[in-house]
Specification:
This protein is α+β, with helices and mostly antiparallel strands. The chain is built from 16 helices and 27 strands. A hairpin with a 3-residue loop joins strand 13 and strand 14. Helix 1 packs parallel to helix 2, helix 1 crosses helix 12 and helix 8 runs antiparallel to helix 9. The chain is globular, with a radius of gyration of 22 Å. The relative contact order is 0.14.
């Protein structure tokens, strides 16, 4: 059988590896915007063909589909989904892992997502307001007395989110001024008529739950936690993700089985609401970027219409069973036949990025990278290639996270192995790498216990999900 993979990052390398290792004997074909060396290794090893082109072009997709004639497709990134590439596959009669453009709106539009959750009374929802101009948002910010998060109304590659906790009264004026200025900058990122969304701020440990669905059957995958900030101890600008952890088992050290079950139910209800709202089945991955909060317990911060990156690198290697076949069953509507297990030991992922990322992609581009891949594999470290191109015989950075290093082992041992593997990488520029990922587990456990006590008390009092704020003018939300 032939499978056509769309995308070019570390997430797609992990998907390609799963397809290439399948007992089904898939021939893997790929369409990427550059030659990813990891994906190319799988394509060459299975007798497929590598295409380089515009992964957002519907016409180019039809041309490649016509030439390959795949049995099914797998779409990795969100932008092709927003561009309707999954629609093209289905119009050509090819089943595909990836939702149609109309239902990928659950990720592209934060406003649509929040409206859907409130319309269908899905647990874990937050109060919000949407604004068509920065001026309207600023008036709200100046009137509101509580803590808020200001976000672009549509997906803009993880840019622009500003969160302010108004805890110190003597700083509240300065905080509002800063947030008001940020609202204007965020609005400039958005093309839609609705520019900004302001949500009530919540706090707690974050985690991500991915569910595979063929529109009718739901297959929950192990939890993961993403580390967004560029530098040690969670400081610096937000990135696409500098690392991730998953496990042990299907959970995380700070999430209990009951919370996992509630999280699964939230995403299941969301998929059903999407079907009722649009009349379309959701086929592919729906991932809830969640937070354990005192307001609800499991709470939705946002949704992904695809695998997260680097969460995919933490999750996919821990799947016991034929994950390539699971992807086929998802695409073809037979997910009820899927059977998987989960490696009990956790995984730790650390991304390696060139200096300049995430603020200056030009500075982070065009650098050579060298690594001792055989020695890294001997040490038990998987390497997924991300924003790095094979040009001739050289590995050249393209401005984002170049590599993702993965170790499956107990947290302490995984951290030790990762640091050894990082020492086997060199470049003609400085490399950014967070040594703290996977090493602050106890802090997360303590934070979760405090939050758990709060939401359980609210639940016993019948106040789960109930919140209110005082304002001199009233009626803010």
């Amino acid at each position: 059988m032939k499978v056509l993979l769309i995308g070019d990052g570390a997430r797609e390398h992990a998907l390609a590896e799963a397809l290439g290792n399948s007992a089904r004997g898939y021939r893997v074909y790929a369409l990427s915007s550059y030659v990813n060396p990891g994906i190319k290794e799988v394509v060459d090893g299975t007798g497929g063909k590598y295409y380089v082109g515009n992964i957002l072009s519907r016409d180019e997709m039809r041309r490649v589909i016509s030439e390959v004639d795949p049995d099914f497709g797998v779409i990795g990134p969100e932008d092709p989904l927003f561009a309707g590439i999954a629609n093209v596959f289905r119009e050509e009669g090819i089943p595909v892992v990836g939702p149609d453009r109309e239902v990928a709106l659950i990720e592209r539009s934060k406003v649509w997502m929040r409206q859907l959750m409130w319309k269908y009374e899905i647990p874990g929802r937050l109060r919000f307001r949407a604004f068509s101009s920065a001026e309207e948002a600023v008036r709200f910010i100046l009137e509101f007395g509580g803590s808020i998060a200001v976000k672009p109304s549509e997906q803009v590659g993880g840019k622009g989110v500003k969160v302010v906790a108004d805890l110190q009264a003597y700083l509240s004026g300065e905080k509002r001024d800063a947030l008001s200025r940020s609202a204007g900058r965020i609005a400039e990122l958005v093309k839609d008529e609705v520019k900004l969304i302001i949500e009530e701020k919540v706090d707690g440990p974050e985690y991500t739950l991915h569910i595979l669905t063929d529109g009718h059957t739901y297959l929950p995958l192990p939890l993961a936690q993403d580390y967004k900030h560029a530098y040690e101890d969670g400081i610096g600008p937000e990135t696409g993700g500098m690392g991730s952890i998953s496990g042990p088992g299907s959970l995380l050290p700070f999430i209990i089985e009951e919370e996992y079950g509630r999280s699964v139910e939230i995403i299941r209800l969301t998929i059903e609401a999407i079907r009722r709202e649009t009349g379309r089945d959701y086929v592919g991955v729906l991932a809830g970027q969640m937070m354990l909060t005192g307001l609800w317990g499991p709470t939705i911060i946002e949704y992904y219409s695809r695998f997260g990156d680097p969460e995919a690198s933490a999750i996919i290697p821990r799947i016991e069973g034929d994950f390539g076949e699971v992807l086929e069953l998802t695409a073809t509507g037979h997910l009820s036949r899927a059977r998987i297990g989960v490696v009990e030991k956790p995984s730790v992922v650390r991304a390696v990025a060139p200096l300049g990322y995430p603020l200056d992609r030009r500075m982070a581009s065009g650098h050579r990278v060298w690594l001792d891949l055989p020695r890294m594999r001997e040490l038990g470290c998987r390497v997924y290639f991300g924003s790095i191109a094979l040009e001739g015989m050289q590995l050249i950075t393209r401005g984002s996270r170049a590599l993702e290093l993965v170790v499956i082992d107990e947290f302490g041992e995984a951290v030790r192995k990762l640091d050894k593997c990082f020492s086997l990488i060199s470049s003609d520029t400085r490399l950014i790498y967070r040594h703290d990922i996977g090493s602050a587990i106890e802090t997360q456990i303590e934070k979760a216990e405090i939050v758990r006590y709060t939401y359980k008390a609210r639940e016993r009092a019948g106040l789960l999900g109930v919140s209110a704020d005082w304002s001199p003018n009233g009626g803010l939300w």
